[in-house]
Structures are given as C-alpha cells and as structure tokens.
Amino acid sequence: MTTVEPDETAVEVAGKAPKSTKAKLIDAARWLAIAVVIFFAARSLITSWDEFWVTMKGIPWLSSALSLVALVGSIAVGVYAWQIIVDELGKPIGYARGAQINLVGSLGKYIPGSVWAYLLQMELGRKAGLARARIFTASLIHLGVGVVAALVLSILAMPAVFANSPHAWWLLVLLPIGFTALHPRVLTWGTSLVLKILRRPPLDHQLSYKLIGKVFGALVLVYALQGTHLWLLANSVGAPGFGGFVLCIGAMAIAMTSGTFAFILPSGVGAREFAMVAVLTATAISGPQALAFAVASRVMFTVADLITAGGAALTARIQARRVAATT
Questions:
Q1: pTM of the model
Q2: E strand or H helix that includes residue 42
Q3: DSSP assignment of 247-269
C-alpha cells in the first residue's frame, strides 16, 4: 500500500460529524460542476444530432446496436484498467465505486480543456474519501499506458496513415520510448516524481510487471472494441471487410490518442475525426461517407458516455441506500 491514501479514520469521523458550511459549499460546487459537464455533453449531442440521424438511417439497426454495445464495452474495460491502478495505490475501492468516480468525472472532457475531466475525478474521489493525488496519479498512469497501447495498434493503420501523411514516421520513433517508459522502474520513478510535485510522499513499492501488463492488455482491448464499433458502422455499406476491420482498430487507436492531446478542444473534437477519415478513405469508402461515419461515431461516443456515467451514478446511489438501510 502506498502513501497517497488519506487517513481513513479521519474520513470516517468527518463523514459522521455534521457538515460545516465549507463542506456544504464544496458539495454544492461538485453538483454544479456535474450539472455543467452534463449540459456540455447534452449540447454536443444535440448540435450533431441531425447530421448523425441522416447517417444512421442508412445503417441497419443491428449494426448500429452492436456498434453501441462495442463502445459501452470499451468504456467498461477502460474503467477496469483505471480502477486496478487506483487499487494499487491504496486500499482497494472496487469496480462499482471506481466506475462512479471515473465515468462521471470523465464527462468533464466535453468542456473545452480536457483538464476538467481530471479535476472532476479528483473531486469525486475526494468525496469518496480518496486522496486527490491518488486519483490524479492513477489517471496519469492510465493515460501513459494508453498512449503506448495506441502506438502499438497504430501500426495496423500505418499503410493508410503514411499514404495520407508521409511525416507520420514519428509514430514509429515514439514506440521504443513508450516501451521504455512502461518498464516498472521507469514508471515507478515517473509516478513518484508526479507525487513529489504534488507534495505527496513517493510510492513505497515498485509497480509490478503484472499490473502494467494487465493495464496494457485492457487498454489494447479498449481500442480493439472501439475499432470494432467503427468497423460495424463502415461495414454496413459493404466496403471495408476484414482488411478494413484491421485498419479501423488502428484508426481508432490513432484517433483517440490524437483527441486526447487536442486538449484545447472539447473531447478532442476535430482531431479525432481527421484521423478516422484519413484511414477510412484508404478503403473503398468515399470522403463524404467517411466524414459522416466519423460524426456518427462521435455522437455514439457521447451517448455511450452518458449511458455508462448515468448507470454508474445510479448503481452507486442504490448501493449507498442499501448500506444506509443496514446501519
């Protein structure tokens, strides 16, 4: 166990004592922040809905449904990867509790500047009795391992990427750097450095190959499911086939990573679509059709985010009522 966990006894005592005015104001601010991110997510959904619906009318309902299921599955696996990192940094919190913090907090990405997602996750974690540093550190590790997993899968789309952007060779240069960063000693050192910057004690043990392997494997599966989501949409017009399936996985790996680093934009808008279109046009899909699928994918991502975040919040509330009823 590490030292990024707050004093549990103090948290329990604070939870039983009457809330101070400051605590009430902080709670109100959290609820306001959640309302704001839901507003931005809903606005993103509404503004793209007409264009989305035009595209979806030409796609069989079964392909659309399976595509959405693949997205929801990718989000669920992503939460697992994040949660096991959080568990490594302190007392295990369990999947349901981790899902509430991660998924509801992740809606902050719909506000321009992806930093809001991390801030909201930290605040939700703090409300659950977890140190902000623990949540932030887990999110950074999750992001770092995810970037390396995306770089590995981007190789699948390299033929299409190089055809559209000859200068994309830097992706290959980053691979050995990424694998080096995943070495337990290097990753532990980097994590401890972040904790030092946050004025928290460093990790008291080295991150294991087993943990890093689990997170890496889970995030590879995340991108594979997201690629399946895109392929199910594109294959509905009878174009990509198996070769397109492989390209779609690589495309989503590149697209999601591009969207992550386009942090000025809400949820990486624009950067993600550009990467998708660049790869899809390497198949038999036309440019306008590829753009339509990219827009449809973005809307489906928003729907999946809202469904999973709402489900996680509802599950957490039901569990809290059950616990309250038994005490």
A1: 0.80
A2: helix 21-47
A3: HHHHHHHHHHHHHHH-TTSGGGT
